[in-house]
Amino acid sequence: MPTLLIRNATLIDGTGSPAVTADLFAENDRITDFGLLSADLHADTEIDAAGKVLAPGFIDIHTHADIALLSHPAHLPRVMQGVTTEVFTNCGLGFAPITGEALAIQRDYIGGLFGDDTGVSWGWRTVAEFLAEYEKKGIGTNAAYLIPHGSLRVSAMGMAARPATTAEIETMETMLREGMNEGAWGMSTGVWYAPMASAAQEELVTLTRTAGFFATHQRDYGTKIFEATEESLDIARKAGVPVQISHLQMNG
Prior knowledge:
This protein has 252 residues and is α/β, with parallel strands linked by helices.
C-alpha cells in the first residue's frame, strides 16, 4: 500500500485549537497517525512541510462546477487552493433531474454560465445518471449535489411565468424525491431568476420540505433585501428545514 509522510508542518486541525508543529503519516490514502512521529519512520513519499500549513480540505459551499467537473475532471483550480469538497448546482441552476425537452431549454438558457463542455455527453436525465458521469470521469474533488429548482420547474411547466398548479407541484415533488433517493444532498432555489421568480411560497415550502435542506439565491439583494431575507427564513420555518442564504449582500 502506498504511504505518505509529511514532517514539520504547521498543523491546523479544524477544531479551533491553536496551530502546532506536527508530522502526519498516511497509508493507502488514509491518515493513520499524526503528532511528533519517530525519526525512524519512513514512507514511499516524504515531504518536508516546514514553513507550510497542513489542514483538512476546505469545503466550498457555493460553486457552479457542474459541467466543469465533467469537462476538466482533475479540477486543479480548486484542488490547488485546498478545496476538497464542493457543494454545487446552486441558485436553482442546473441540469438534473430533467426531461429531454427541458434539458434542451436549460442548455440554451443557462449553458453559457457553466463554461466549456468539451467531452460532456449531455445524455443523462436523472440525478443517478448525472452523478454516474462523475464516477466515470474520476473527479478531483468530492461532490455534494443540490437538486436545482429550475430543472424541476422547466420539466414540469416549461418557462411559464406564473405560479405552479397543484399538479405541477406534485410533478416537481416526485422528481425531487427520486433525486434525493439517488444521492442529492438537498435543493437550491434561485427566485431572482426566471422562471423560478414566478414561484409562489406554497411551491417553495412543499419542495424544500421534501428536500430537507435548501440553499437560496433570494429574490432581491437591493432595496427589498429585508423582505427577501424574511421570505427565505419564513419558507425554512414553514418547511421545518435549514436554509443557507447564498452570497448574502447588499447591492447599491
